[in-house]
Design goal:
The structure holds two protein chains of two kinds. By secondary structure, chain A is mainly α. Chain A has 18 helices and two strands. The radius of gyration of chain A is 21 Å and the shape is globular.
Amino acid sequence: MSVELSPMILAIFLPLFGAIAAFIAPRAAWSIGLATLAATTGAVIWLARDVWAKGAVMLPLGGWGAPLGIDLRADGLSVAMLALTSAVGFLVSIAALDSLKDAARQRQYFWPLWLLLLTGMNGVYLSTDLFNLYVMIEVIALAAVGLTVLNGTRDALRAGLEYMYASILGALLFLMGVGFVYLHLGRLDFAGLAGAEVSGSLIAAMALMFVGLALKIALFPLHFWLPAAHANATAPASALLSGLVVKAALYIVLRLAQYMPFPSETLLTLVGLMGAGAVIWGGIQALRAERLKLLVAWSTVAQIGLIFVAFARAGEMGLTESWKAAALLILAHGVAKAAMFLAAGRIKDEIGHDVIRDLDRAPIRPTLAQFTFALAAISLIGLPPSLGFIGKWSLMEGAMAAGYWHWVAVTMAGTLLSVAYFSRVLTAFLRFDRVRAPVGEHQGWALADAAPLTLALAAIGLGLMAAPLLSFIEIGYPFGVAQ
Amino acid sequence: MTDPLVIFDVALALAIVALAVAALSVRDLFAMIVLFVVFGLLSALAWVRLSAPDVALAEAAIGAGVTGALLLKTLHHLRYVSGTLGQQAAYGVTPLTPVPIGVTLANAIFCGLITLGLAVAYLGAPAAGPGFDALVAEAMPRSGVDHPVTGVLLNFRAYDTLMEVVVLLAAVVAVWQIERGVSDAPAPVLGEVWQGFARLALPATVVVGTYLLWVGAEAPGGAFQGGAVLAAVGLLLLLTRAYVPQPTHRGIARGAFVLGTGVFALVALLVASGGRVAFEYPLEHAKTLILLIEGMVTISIAVTLAALFHGREPVAQTKGGRDDT
């Protein structure tokens, strides 16, 4: 009797078993963690080949089939998110080996929490069931809060507590929405949503779900918890939180928009306006931030806003294309922001602080980390040929085609703001005449820079592969078409 | 003719709302916790009236029982670190800086919008939706158990339940990793009545918890409810200091935390052979496997909840004596 494995099952169960093993054997946690990440990446590649060859694949867990049971389903978008998660996760894990090497306790607990987080995120990307999504975001929430407070500082604990309140409130709102949807439709699977009749009360239920998710995504004006949480966490945790965790809830919004009877144009414009508010407010706060990590965290708020602008860019009619712009921006931000947070952490480690005003006064110049930061900034600002550029370009193209010039204006304003706030950091890197280091210019290179640099290069280079990437994420994704 | 139970229901609903308001507005933290526990018990009663005895059991055991104990423990700790442990005065927490009016206003608007959304969603919702009832009834003979709720939780939607157990695991890992600089508050002095109570209550609790687990296959009950009741045994042991967590016990505790998740996930994976997929238990073994999973999950839930009550990874005792762990 041989056990039959499916790559979808592996993508969820490998990290789960890895987390268990890493928790039981704390001394070997790091090697278990890396091995698990490698194996999970392998499973995702296997799944990608399946999806490439056969289109979307399904697996009815327990053999029951939806709506009674729960189905797992993978299409192009799921696989893209899984690939983002395992690739970024793998590189962040390598970076974590170095940045946690002096903190025995953090090193011990980082791995089980991170692997549980991975379980939850992979579960979200393969889920086709509303209640299952709720359970998965709860797994993500607790593991993410654990990672936020990993370094045990007072600020991190305070921010982590706030994050937990926001996260649990968001999950509860989502759950209440799910409850009402179940009352209406009598089922929880996505397919049941597709044929639903739109009524005021069903829209109210979906609005509750959306507000819950918006709290978890930190969409303006529900972003209050994010800057402190992401800025005070330890660097690899920040990279995971900003690069990957918020993407899980973003993905749910994108996915549900595919199946849900769509709300009116007004609601979509409202979503776009919240995004626009985030772009402007996040940009202004990033300009005012005194610390490097806080600046990077505020830029996450702004970039998330941009993703929602992309979603609303061409109104209801353009939604069949708009989600692709949003998906590209999600992928671009995931890679670039992880690189940027790791680089910021490296700079802080080398210089000993991350006060932006004093960055150019340090005798040490962690050049490679600074280079990484600049590359990531290029992708986040959206200069060609980065993936961020492709995302922004398709956003503006769609908005222009639909004649929605206000979204173009918002995107432009956001881009200018991001140039402005990243320049604050980049100029501090360039002006090296203040203090001369006694021992040459090239201090602060380390093997630890390899992982963030790889991520930053990927953020730039993936832009060149945008066309195959786009055709891949379209596999099995019939927007607005009932399954 | 009015059903007398309608009057009871209305009174129950009003009492629950009134308790919620009272719990939110009272300043004394101890009174707040007591009100919250009563609120939980009445909510459990409401679940009974809604014909959801499984939820009622869980609400009473976890919502009122374990949560109440956690809150009381936290209050005890707060009083210890603020130096008001021996005082009889009410202990309330006032924020250091007054909340700005803008924040209050923003919160009020947010809550208002949410309430509006809930109201619209509720008023337009069908009184009795289609639901899973028919599907569950049809599939029950193939589930291996007789109680529909257990069938849904441990078979049809076992994947969700596995992940719920993972949530609990994530919670205890997160709690253990927080290194708290301050030492624990000394345990409260327990009177003679208490010792007698513990002697009577401990064996009874074990029996009730195990019964809840066992009966789950055909009647309301199951792993979560049984685990919560068994966790009470752990709480009593910790409170009476009959058991003091030691650093050397960490390995066993870790094993107990992951036992439920590990066995559940392994069973789910290993049944996937001969054309079956994951979570598809062969019918002839379904009841045995479900009982095995539930038993292991119950142990994990009980140990995890007790560990959450203890609230930290066991550390080496300081020299200060027994009361200063």
